[in-house]
Amino acid sequence: MTKTHFILTTAGHVDHGKTALIRALTDIECDTHKEERERGITINLGFAHIDLEEDKSIGIIDVPGHKDFVNTMVAGANSTDIALLVVAADSGVMPQTEEHLKIMKMMNVEKGFVVITRIDLADGELIKIVEEEIKSLVNGTFLDNCSIVKTSAKTGQGIAQVKKTIEYLLKKISERESDGIFRLYIDRIFTVKGFGTVVNGSTQDGKLCKTDDVYLLPGGENLRIRRMERFGHEVETVYPGDRTSINISGLDKDQFESGMLLSKKKLKTSNKIDAQIEFFDHNRNFGIWADMLFLLGTYQEQVRVHLLDKDYISSGQKAFVQIHLQTPCVAKYGDKFILRSTSNDVTLGGGKILNIDPLHHKKRTPKVISQLNLISDKGLAGLILVTLNKYRTALTAHQIGKTLNVSKQKVEKKLKEKKAAEIISTNINKKIYFISEDVSKTLKSRVINLLKNYHKENPISLYGLNTEEFMSIFAPDIKENKEITIQLILDELIVNEVLEEIENTYILANHQRELSEEVKNELDLIDDYSRDLGFETFDRVKFLEETENKFSHDHLENLLNRLIEEKRIISIQGQLLHRETVEKGKKLIVDYLNHNVGGIEIAKFRDLIDSSRRIALLICSYCDDNKITVRRGDKRFLTEKWKNR
After folding, report:
1. Where are the alpha helices (DSSP H) in 271-407?
2. Which residues of 585-616 are buried (b: 16+ CB within 10 A; e: fewer)?
3. DSSP 3-state of 560
């Protein structure tokens, strides 16, 4: 059997013959539950498959038609490729017929046809009336001008034509992409003696191999697959659109709650979702805040809906909203959902998820609306841009995907499109990072301003700021890839000749580095003064007094920093000694230790330099830090590198 990964879902009013039609098509009874058989209506989802020509087959979901079971119907519609709208010839179009059609449209079903059932119970005139009702109902929908097949499950009339219509539509449908992250909403769970727990569902995204790890979400418990079936046949891999049965090891039926799903990865859960909704025709209006019932796959929850671009919403209108969930939901961009009244008796409308990782929109600002318009217009590429702007840093495709519950491959594919032109990519340490142009411009401006201030405060400094010192330009809550992002910004500024790199620091390219003769003379004065101190540290207060305060305190600090940068003065633990003094002390300790392998104590070194213990400790510390000596107990010894030098 050729692997064709498609799902056909029935829709229509209660007791219009959907289950009987499927039985005639497949010889499979979908009403398998006692209550369903007793009441004569479908309560739970029923499943079958039909073998077609060219070794193809398609999964069939028989959804409930009764108004009390619309929630279950939504779970079936969530994975539909072809909709089969059923209307009984002896009843005509009924309330649930229209409601199911609206739900199918909202769930983004694009292909389908209509079947008039029970033609054996109606005369030709009544069938024509029903046909006209159907044409009026589907006008302007995805079923406009579709095939209308007349059937009787009792006599078999029209059943072959239904099969041919399905085959015709299948040729117009492309198989779903399998590069997403595997997700399967569990719509049935049961225990089989000798096997354990079995779950059923329709594969939403991605493919799953029998050897893959799988997780129960929300919660993230790791499970093991014992066996997988598709249409009753054991398989090693299932694909998007497959009706799948999985025998799970490690899952007890009692651990399961309605709305859970299986996935190959521990996906992010959401308590807030940005979405675009559309209301059906009904006589209800809602203000800025409203309570509704939210249905996504098998997930159902009372939610608070916050209108973002309107003060109220009524029949037939669209709006951007933020949906606040009471319990976590696992979703991703593009998922379709249905909204019902809190009493669960009216389907209000539905919508499309735009962002599962939004900020809490306490205020309905133009910026929020602009971002939602961007996602609505540009799709996933727009969402990636909004996400990069939110996190204000460079991210890999893997990091972006993890945030949005989207595969790395889908992120990379979208970033290659022209729609993502406002996103910059760069290769750092053999990894590709992405950053938005807006964030890049902002960070560049902050880097430049930080250096301008630094140069103003340190006008004669030889060096600039290092990578770590630029970290302050990030918001405190930004944790991801700070150093990578700064390096990306600095590299681009160097390429554009805005910055120059000197000794692992960065300066503005237009920074005046030539010193005036006056400053050169001041540097030489301090240099000579420090040299004359010998084994005595530089005292700023004493120097200012002796030079009759010709230097301001700030200017003196700038001069000293420049001398330190030029290594004419050495800073050791914040104390300043002239380079020649330090070199003299270093030579004394090296010469002594090359002739005295027993080491040297501080007291002995103090006598050698004829100075204080404090100065001796400073020079010994310098030698330790520069790997000239090593301390063992109270003595210093030469390192291997400095022996016999």
Report:
1. 366-378, 380-391, 397-404
2. bbeebbebbeeeeebbeeeebbeebebeeebb
3. helix
Give me 130's structure tokens.
């029903």
Domain that holds residue 579: 542-642
The alpha carbon dihedral of 417, 420, 424, 426 has a sign of negative
**In 295-421, which residue ranges form alpha helices assigned H by DSSP?**
366-378, 380-391, 397-404, 408-415
**CA–CA separation, 174 vs 77, rounded Å?**
18
Distances (CA, A) of 513 to 306, 462, 493, 509, 519: 57, 7, 19, 10, 12
The CATH number of whichever domain residue 238 belongs to comes to 2.40.30.10
Contact 245, 185 (CB under 8 A): no
Query: Which 3 state secondary structure label does DSSP give 221?
Result: strand
- Residue 241 inside a domain? The answer is yes
Residues forming beta bridges with residue 600, ordered by sequence position: 636
619-635 tens-digit pLDDT: 999 999 999 999 999 99
Amino acid code (one letter) for 383: L
160 and 13 part of one domain = yes
Confirm whether 356 is domain-assigned. Answer: yes
Q: Return the structure tokens found at 317.
A: 């209108």
Residue 566 belongs to a domain: yes
502: helix, strand or coil:
strand
What percentage of the chain has pLDDT greater than the value 90? 63
The reply to whether 151 and 28 lie within a common domain is: yes
Cα–Cα distance, 312 to 123 (Å, whole number):
48
Q: What angle do CA 294, 298, 300 make, to 5 degrees?
A: 30
Q: What is the pLDDT of residues 407-462, one digit of tens each?
A: 999 999 998 886 667 999 888 888 999 999 999 999 999 999 999 999 999 999 98
